[in-house]
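Risk register update: the risk of archive-format incompatibility is retired. Evidence:
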Amino acid sequence: MNQETLSDPRAVKFALWGGIIFALVFTTIIWLANPLLERFELITTNEGVIYDWQLLEPTFAGQITYWVFYAAHQIILWGLIYYAQTRVKKYAAGVHPVNIWALGVNAFFILLHFIQTHIWYDGIAQDMASWTSQGAVILMLCAILVMENKRRGMFFGTKAPFSERIISFARKYHGYLFSWAIVYTFWFHPMVSTPGHLVGFFYMFLLMLQSSIFLTRLHVNKWWTIVQEVTVLFHGTLVAIYQANSLWRMFAFGFAAMFVVTQMHGLNLSRLTRWLIGLGYVAAMLFVYNSDWARLNEVIRIPIIEYLVAFVIAGLIGLGLWISDRFKQSKTESQTNS
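Archived output:
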């Protein structure tokens, strides 16, 4: 593939649809291969805080492989992001050679994780708590709120009072944070085929695709990026339903509230369309909670957490920039006086 082909807008469309087909095919492979994992003996517990998909007797080889493979995957992707920011720099209608490398690296480690699961089973979950994986994805979603504040606002199109420097900083360095959140979550789970895991891995594959096409026009396409945000609604809801957990309503209506309050306002929808979506959301919520009003407060839990974390992220970035400015000012004054 020559540089002229890479710069063709059709190249990024090929990468997009090729990546989606790959995600669908590999998710199907995980499902079909699951009977081969029945030979592994897993822990048994009724405690909801314990992650169920880990070996009863962990192996040293398993522990070494999932940490080494995770570290290699992470370091290589961080290196590609750094290369793109320092050498490529410009957005293109097509794809850059570094995008091809990123797609290939992710495809390789997806296959490697599949093999690792079928030989040693365990993922990072054997050593780390479940909330670390969930928290990584939530942190990514909250950072997106900060990054997109200028374009779509935070609350019904109204912008939060974040400075341009804070938003610019988040946009410039978000790739490192998002890459960590995606790769860490990916290696946290063994490749098993519960409905929640299948949707989760499909979601991870889409996120890896998105993180591989940095510095392309598609990477910032509003319709494609909204898919990355909204898919978590289906994943969280399906996991709760599979676990026979009544909290499925919290995930469904909580993440849907994020769409109604924030996300849909960046899609250039007409006012009538937004009103219809909002009223449809309220009607569905009242219908589902009609016999259980005491738990209606569930719908605000996820939004409260996400907005709070978004403001904390913005605050920490602002604090870091302020400290950096003071340090630079102090250094300049010291040099001037000397």
